[in-house]
Amino acid sequence: MENTSSDIRQLNEKIHQASAFVDLLNMELGKVIVGQRYMVERLLIGLLAQGHVLLEGVPGLAKTLSIKSLSSAINAKFSRIQFTPDLLPADVVGTMIYNQQKNEFVVRKGPIFANFILADEINRAPAKVQSALLEAMQERQITIGDNTFKLDDPFLVLATQNPIEQEGTYTLPEAQVDRFMLKVVIGYPTKEEERHIIRQNLNPEAATPIRAVIQPADIMDARKLVREVYMDEKIEKYIIDIVFATRNPEEYKLQKLKPLISYGGSPRASINLALAAKAYAFMKRRGYVIPEDVRNICFDVMRHRVGLTYEAEAENVTSENILSEILNAVEVP
């Protein structure tokens, strides 16, 4: 046991030094993005834990600006794809084009070949396009004709969806929603932040451009360290209890939730909850996970993985309400 505690101490020191760039990134992004600390923090968790992020919020909340600024600060390649009902898979992944000089077909790569992909209003495109994006997200590779291409690392898909207009949108299938590590719901800025936003936009000369403070290779190194963050068996059990409570609420004295949940979190939920908690601990410059890390990240990892029944919708019960009940009922280690 003595050995383990000294190992954890060493790991803690190592991670405390290695995670210093998180503050650098936050400072750099703070030059352009006012408020939205929560969203930026979640983007970094997705980046460090190698997971994709689904952002939900009304237009004009700096979603595009945030990811664009983040890719500039990491010196990575950024690509934005506006999803529309007439979008084709080839518009996303690329296609084969006939070259007359060479008398052969050559591959023209699509915008998906970048480090950061902003899939804007993802629910506006039909299922065929969704499945092309799904292969990229899950397999981290693209097939064009007979050729398969590995995607660059780091590779992060940030999809946005607008919660208000549902005309002409395609609901994302559960299988695809499950591929997103986090679903982040973004709110409006405070009055003070909004005043700052107005001033910043009325005086564009004063804005300082974003510098690259770290390189993509630094992110790859940080990802390896994130997986080394120490997680005690008690924390693992806590994560499993939270996920199992969404599947069998009656085992946790939550019988009243049974008729409200149509399906609970998959094993992917447990994996992502553990990984995101490790990434959160890393960002807080700690070499070990505490229960608070799990609770902090729980809603973002789980809100899109708990299916609601018609009864829940009729009673205006949200997945957040269910998760709050579960977090209050499951014993904290």
**What characteristic shape results from the CA principal axes?**
globular
Task: Give the DSSP E fraction (strand runs of 2 or more residues).
Answer: 15-25%
| SSE string, helices as H and strands as E | HHHEHEHEEEHEEEHEHHHEHHEHH
Number of helices: 14
The CATH class of the largest domain is Alpha Beta
CATH superfamily of the largest domain: P-loop containing nucleotide triphosphate hydrolases
Percent helix: 40-55%
**Content-based structural category:** alpha/beta
Low-confidence stretches: none
Number of domains: 2
Domain ChlI/MoxR AAA lid: 259-326
Protein name: MoxR family ATPase
Domain ATPase AAA-3: 52-182
Walkthrough of the structure:
By secondary structure, this protein is of the alpha/beta class. The chain folds into two domains: 35-197, P-loop containing nucleotide triphosphate hydrolases (Rossmann fold, 3-Layer(aba) Sandwich); 229-329, Orthogonal Bundle (Helicase, Ruva Protein, domain 3), CATH 1.10.8.80. It contains 14 helices and eleven strands. It has helices at residues 2-18, 20-30, 37-48, 63-73, 89-93, 127-139, 174-177, 191-202, 216-228, 233-247, 267-283, 291-302, 310-314, 319-329; strands at 52-56, 78-82, 94-99, 104-109, 116-120, 141-144, 147-150, 156-161, 180-185, 261-263, 307-308. The strands form four sheets. A five-stranded parallel beta sheet has the order 2-5-8-1-9. Strands 3-4 form a two-stranded antiparallel sheet. A two-stranded antiparallel sheet has the order 6-7. The chain starts with a helix and ends with a helix. The relative contact order is 0.15. The mean pLDDT is 85.
